[in-house]
Structure formats: C-alpha cells, structure tokens
Design a protein that fits this description.
Number of domains: 3
Number of strands: 9
Structural class: alpha+beta
Helix content: 40-55%
Number of helices: 10
Shape: elongated
C-alpha cells in the first residue's frame, strides 16, 4: 500500500498537538486523578486529616500530573530541533513493505523496521505512527481513497506491531536498572509510577509492572510508617512542647508589659498588638488540626481574665482544654501573687 501526503508546517504542528493532548486521553486522565488522590492521602506534617487540606493537596497534585502527562511532552517535542527544522511544506510518501514502512520525503528516504514501530493511532482525521525513538509520522486521512483503505492500513500496521511483540518487549529491558532508584524514599514513588506506566503500555512487560508496583508499595509503607510515628507517638512531641512553652513565656511577658503600661490585663490576646507587633499567640497544637483555610475556628492560646488574675495555657497534645496535658508558662514562679497566673479546672 502506498500513500502520498502533503502537509503544511501549521497543519503538522496542529496535528502533533492533537496527538499529545488526546492520545489515550481517558486513561491518562484517570491516572492523573488516581495518583493525585493517592498522594493527597499522605500526611505532610499535619497531624489530623482535614478535608480542606486534602482538597487543596488533591488539586495541586492533579494540576501537576496533568501538566506533566499532557503538556510537557508536547512542549518538549514542539521545541525539539527536528520540529524547528520543518519547512513550510512537507511532502512524504509512505509505502508498506514486508520489512517495514518505507518513507520518502524531500529531505531523506528511510526504511522503518516493524520492530521500531511503537504504536499507531487515529485521532481526529489524522493517523499517527509513533516510533520507539519517539519520532512521529502524521498521515491525514484525506489522502486515503476510502475509509476502508484507511482501516486496512491501520489494521496492517497493528498486525505487524503485534507480530514483533517479543522484540519490542525485550527492548524495554534497559529500564530494569532504574528499579534501584525506587529504594529512594518519596523519589522512588515517582520512579515506580514511571516503570509501572511503561510496563502497562501496549506491549505489556510483567517485570516492569512488578518493579513499578514494588517501588510504589515500598514508598507507601515508608510514608505510612513516618505518618504513624508523627501521629500516634511522641516522636516530635518534645519539640512541639518546647516551642509551645517558649511562646507561652513570650506571651506572658507581653501580658505583664501590657498591665504595666495600661494598669490592667488585656481582655483578649489580640490586644497584645499594642505592645508587640507580632505576638506569638497562636497555639502550635491547635495549628496542627485546624486548616489554614479555616478563618473561623480559633487557634489562639486559651486566655481568661479574672479581675487582677488571668490564666494562659495551651491545649497540649490531646487538643482539648482543661486536661492533664495542658501546657502553662514557666517564666514566672506561679506562687508569686504578682504574676496572676491561676490554673482553672472544670
């Protein structure tokens, strides 16, 4: 079968854009949604699951995957040296032979062996022949005499690709060495995604699929272990405790300074802005469980004024006030009346 084609540079670039943005669009969109969902379940320092944080992470990861999967390959190809060298008019002749596809253009003549053909696609009136070198040939469907001739050409190429399945599968063995990179925490997760995607391509490679899944599961286990250490143990509790205690001491100084200047204790911690431009009144333990997008739920230290006395404390690890793990300032001796510090319990 012989097909003669003529494309302008503008039409060729338009066709290439369709190829990169619509090739296996449904599967790539599902992959983007799936992997964005999986990554959004990871805890990146937060100690409580919040739907607002999950939605924010999911949106960010989905946009990243969408750009990487859909747009970056097109931009890379468009800016490649071969694409930039395309003339305003591109004449080509395609001829199917026993050994492959013979391509004649005004620049060169080459025979593409069937084992070098990766896949063939029909997208929006264009036939795309993708090689293993990532080179792409475009044949507009209008250059076929009939729909039947077009379908016969696609069927012929598909049959030749399938008959060279063993050779094409063996050509992926060079990817096996990347499996070691999957042992690197977090980075290995993305290595696993890459190997898995290569393994489930048209010509399935069971070894790549298993390596990819292994890298993904290993990194999920690592992240799950880290999440467990942060969420259910005292792994970082001492650091949080020390930071909270230091902030409480600073706020206590500000309260005493306010009292010395105005002759009374402040009615709320927000009034400390009069004596400190940036008073550290946010409770670190409450910040861990309240979404940054939540502007309603209070995250300040608990402060109560009672005449010439007041109480100031943090909710502590359990995030509940008036319990045994509440944290109080230590800057003053609580037995001194001038400090006004009292510990109220329900």
């Amino acid at each position: 079968m012989t097909i003669n084609t003529t494309l302008s540079k503008k039409e060729l670039l338009h066709a290439i854009k369709l190829f990169f943005l619509r090739k296996r669009k449904g599967r790539r969109l599902i992959n983007s949604l799936f992997f964005a969902f999986v990554l959004s379940l990871f805890s990146f320092g937060e100690k409580k699951f919040l739907w607002s944080i999950f939605a924010l992470k999911f949106t960010i990861f989905f946009v990243i995957f969408y750009i990487v999967i859909f747009y970056l390959p097109y931009v890379r190809f468009k800016n490649s040296r071969n694409t930039l060298s395309i003339s305003d008019k591109w004449d080509s002749k395609y001829e199917t032979l026993i050994g492959g596809i013979k391509v004649n253009s005004h620049k060169s003549e080459e025979l593409i062996p069937w084992y070098n053909v990766l896949d063939i696609f029909y997208i929006s009136h264009y036939i795309f022949i993708e090689l293993r070198s990532r080179k792409i040939y475009v044949i507009p469907s209008r250059f076929f005499n009939s729909i039947t001739e077009r379908e016969d050409f696609i069927r012929l190429v598909n049959n030749e690709i399938d008959s060279n399945l063993l050779i094409s599968t063996d050509s992926k063995r060079h990817l096996y060495r990347y499996g070691w990179l999957g042992l690197i925490p977090i980075f290995g997760f993305f290595v696993g995604l890459y190997l898995f995607s290569k393994g489930i391509s048209r010509h399935r490679n069971g070894i790549l699929i298993k390596m990819g899944l292994g890298c993904i599961l290993l990194n999920l286990l690592i992240c799950s272990f880290v999440f467990y250490k942060i969420r259910f143990t005292n792994f970082f509790f001492n650091d949080d405790f020390n930071i909270t205690e230091q902030q409480l001491n600073i706020v206590t100084k500000d309260i005493e300074l306010y009292n010395s200047l105005y002759g009374t204790y402040p009615d709320s911690l927000e009034e400390l802005l009069k004596v400190d431009k940036v008073p550290p009144i946010a409770d670190p333990f409450l910040q861990q469980i309240v979404s940054p997008l939540d502007t309603v739920t209070p995250i300040y230290f608990h402060y109560y004024k009672n005449g010439n006395n007041y109480i100031l404390f943090s909710v502590g690890k359990d995030h509940i006030s008036n319990t045994d793990d509440d944290i109080y300032p230590t800057i003053f001796d609580s037995t001194k009346a001038r400090t006004g510090l009292i510990k109220l319990r329900k």
